[in-house]
Design a protein that fits this description.
Shape: globular
Radius of gyration: 16 Å
Number of strands: 6
CATH topology: Rossmann fold
Structural class: alpha/beta
Number of helices: 6
CATH superfamily: Nucleoside phosphorylase domain
Order of helices and strands: HEEEHEHEHEHH
Helix content: 25-40%
Strand content: 25-35%
CATH class: Alpha Beta
Length: about 170
């Protein structure tokens, strides 16, 4: 809803960053994920684009985001994210299936935001920050690590990437 309102207000470039759960027990809280695509397991994206298994990020906006992270010395992991709106249905079987499909994390909005951006023709890219881990064998980590890690640095990097993307109007 917020993205639709921003677009209706004239916004043509969006960089989103949010949190995700790791699918692999060795991924630490605070790990940055740059999804190449989102596996669709939610409802919103199907209102904006045809029925497909995945929605991909724009390769040009991805390249700019990666370049800006590199400039800032921010390490990241690439791979797909699994977008679901059924948080209590993240079963062991489903987690393993998503890992087989190349997913490294699970989130609740990436596929939806990608679909809205494609439908509305705006420039968009998203990255995620691992907040927890849904592998039951993973050690429990401190939420405070997320609170401290990269907070200001990530905002500044995202702003620089958004400015470059907007200047090029990638994806329009």
């Amino acid at each position: 809803m917020d993205m639709e309102l921003m677009i209706a207000s004239g916004v043509d470039t969006v960089i989103a960053y949010g949190t995700a759960g790791a699918l692999y027990k060795n991924m630490e809280t605070g790990t940055i994920i740059i999804p190449t695509a989102a596996t669709r397991d939610e409802g919103t994206s199907y209102h904006y684009m045809p029925d497909t298994d995945e929605v991909e990020q724009n390769p040009e906006t991805l390249a700019i985001l990666r370049e800006e992270m590199h400039k800032c010395g921010i390490e990241w992991v690439g791979g797909k994210t699994w977008t679901t709106d059924a948080i209590y249905r993240e079963t062991v079987g489903k987690r393993e299936m998503m890992k087989e499909r190349g997913c490294v994390c699970v989130d609740m909005e990436c596929a939806s935001l990608l679909a809205v951006a494609k439908f509305r023709g705006i420039s968009f890219v998203q990255f995620l920050i691992i907040l927890d881990n849904i592998d039951e064998d993973a050690p429990k980590t401190d939420y405070g690590l997320y609170q401290q890690r990269y907070r200001e640095e990530l905002f500044d990097m995202a702003l620089a990437a958004a400015q470059r993307i907007r200047a090029r109007r990638v994806g329009s």
